[in-house]
Amino acid sequence: MKALMGNKSILFAGSFLLLCLGYIGFGYYLDRSQTNLLLLSYTGLWLLSWPWLRIERSERSGLNHSPFSWGKVLIAGLILRVLLLFSWPNLSQDVYRFLWDGALFAQGISPYHFTPVSLINQLEVLSLNIPDAAQLFKKMGALSAGNYSNYPPVKQLIFALPHWLGIEPLLHRISALRLFIILADTGVFFLGRQLLKKQSLNPNYIKWYFLNPLIILELTGNCHFEGFMALSILASIVLALNHRYFLSGILLAIGVGVKLIPLMFIPIILAHFASQTKQSQSLNSIIKYGLGLALGLALIFLPFLNAETLGHYWDTTGLWFTKFEFNASVYYVLRWIGFQWKGYNLIAQIGPALSLITTTSILYLSYRVWLNKSHLYQAMFWSILIYLVFATTVHPWYWTTVLILSILAQSRIGLVGSMLIFLSYTAYESSIVAEKSLWISIEYLLLIAYVLWELKNPTHDKSQFAKTSSS
User: Fold this and answer.
1) 4 band by pLDDT with thresholds 50, 70 and 90
2) Which of 92, 101, 242, 434 shows a CA-CA span of 20 to 30 A to 108?
3) Is the C-alpha dihedral spanning 353, 354, 356, 357 positive or negative?
4) Residue 446 predicted with pLDDT over 90
5) What distance in Å separates the CA atoms of residue 321 and residue 317, rounded to the nearest whole number?
6) Is the pTM for the entire model greater than 0.70?
7) Which uninterrupted H or E stretch holds 56?
8) Is 65 helix (H, G, I), strand (E, B) or coil?
C-alpha cells in the first residue's frame, strides 16, 4: 500500500512539473495565430490537469473525495498563476486599453469622454502622462482605439492602480494587474468552498475553477477581470445567507461596477428573498438589500453620470448587441437565415430581439425561484448560460461566471464548456479575424449534446457532488 501511494505521489509530482512547463511554454512562447499548436497545447494542459481536477470515488464510503487536500490545490493553483506573472498577454489585446484608461482615470480624466484616437496626438498639449502611449495605442488595436471606453468605474479604479503606484515598465504594470487578479481568484477559491459546504456538497469541486486551464490562461495570463466579478457575486451570496442583506446589496453593486453582468441576477435574488416563509422577514430583507444595492450603485456610478458620458457609454455598449459578433451560437443561425431572406446581416434587429428573449427568460427563472420551484444557484446559472447562448459576442473569458455558478448548481456544463470554448481561437489564424464555421459548429454541437444529456440525467450528475466527512 505504501509503495502504491508512493508511486501515485511520484506520478502526481511528475504531472505537475509537466503542467508547470506547459504553462510556461503556453504563456511565453505561443501566439494566438499558431492555431494548431495553440489547440494542441490547450488540450495538453487539460490532460495534465485532469489528475488534479478529478474527484475520485471512495471504495469504502462510496462518496467522492480528492487525492489532494485543499491546501495543496490552493498552492498548486497559485504556482501555476505566478508562472505567468511576467509573460506578455498572447490571447487578447484588452490589457493595453485597460492601462490606457487607467492612466487617464488616475489623472482625473474620464475615460468615457475621449477615444484613444482623439487623444493620441494631443497628450503633450493636454499635459497628460500615459506611459508607453504609442505602444499601448498600437497594441490595443484599431477597434478599441476608435471607441469610447465601456468599462465600469470599479474596473477603471483597478486599471489606475499601477499608475498610482508609480510602476513604469509596461510589463511590470501588467504584472501588477495580474497580482490583483490572483488575489480575486484566491477569494473565489475560499468563498466557493464555503458555499459548497453550506449546501452539504464536496468543497473540493472548487478546483474545477481554481485549477481550470481556461481560468488560469484567460484571467491571470491575459488580464481579464471576470474573477473580480465572480468574487463580488459570491461575497454577496455569502452575506445574504448570513442575513447581512445591506452589505450583500453593496457587494453586488461592486460586481456591477466591474462588469454589468450581475444586473441580470437582481430579479432572481429578490425573488429568492420573497420566497422566504415569513412574509415580514422577506420584505425586510428585500428593503435592506435594495438599499445597499441602490447606495452602492449610486456611489459607484453617479460621479461619472452626465449627458455626454451616458451618450458615449450607451453607444459603445450598444455595439455588443447591434454590431460586434464573435463565437455566437443562436445568433449565427439567425444571421444565416437573415441572409437567405433579406440578403444582408440583420444584426441590428436580431441582437435586440435576442436580448429581449434573454430578459424574458430571466424573469421566468425569477418567477420559478419565487414559487420555490428552482434553487437560487440553478436560476443564476441558467440565466447566464441563456444570456451567452443568445449573445452576439461570446469571448472565452465570458465563461468564467458560467463555470463558477455551474459548480454551485451541481452541474458539469460549465466544466465541459470551459474545454470547448477555446475552439473560438481558430478565428485568429491570420491577421484578419476570420471565424471557422466548422470549429464553431463542433464547439456548440458538443456543448448542446452534453447539456441535453445532463438534462436527461439530472440525478446522476448531482449525486456526484456528495460531500465527504474528510473534505
Assistant:
1) very low
2) 92
3) positive
4) yes
5) 8
6) yes
7) strand 56-57
8) strand
Backbone angles phi and psi of 249, in degrees to 5: -65, -40
Cα–Cα distance for residue pair 230/214, rounded to 1 Å: 15
pLDDT tens profile 25-58: 999 999 999 999 999 999 999 999 998 898 866 5
| DSSP helix/strand/coil, 375 | coil
- The reported pLDDT for the residue numbered 69 is 83
C-alpha cell at 147: 471607441
DSSP 180-201: HHHHHHHHHHHHHHHHHHHTTB
| Burial class of residue 200, CB neighbours in 10 A (0-12, 13-18, 19+) | exposed
**pLDDT tens for residues 202-234?**
999 999 999 999 999 999 999 999 999 999 999
The answer to whether 399 and 301 have CB atoms below 8 angstroms apart is no
Q: What is the DSSP letter of 324?
A: -
CB 186 within 8 A of CB 232: no
pLDDT, tens digit (0-9, with 9 covering 90-100), for 290-317:
999 999 999 999 988 887 777 777 777 7
User: What does the pLDDT average to over 250-278?
Assistant: 92
Contact 206, 187 (CB under 8 A): no
Q: Is 343 exposed, middle or buried (0-12, 13-18, 19+ CB in 10 A)?
A: exposed
Give the integer Cα–Cα distance in Å for 70 and 190.
10
Give CA–CA dist 425/435, Å, rounded: 8
In whole angstroms, what separates CA 31 from the centre of its chain?
22
SS3 111: coil
Alpha-carbon span 276 to 128, nearest angstrom: 53
Say if residues 86 and 216 touch (Cβ distance below 8 Å). no
User: Measured between alpha carbons, how far is residue 323 from residues 229, 340, 391 in Å?
Assistant: 25, 19, 12
Return the bridge partners of 56, or none: 65
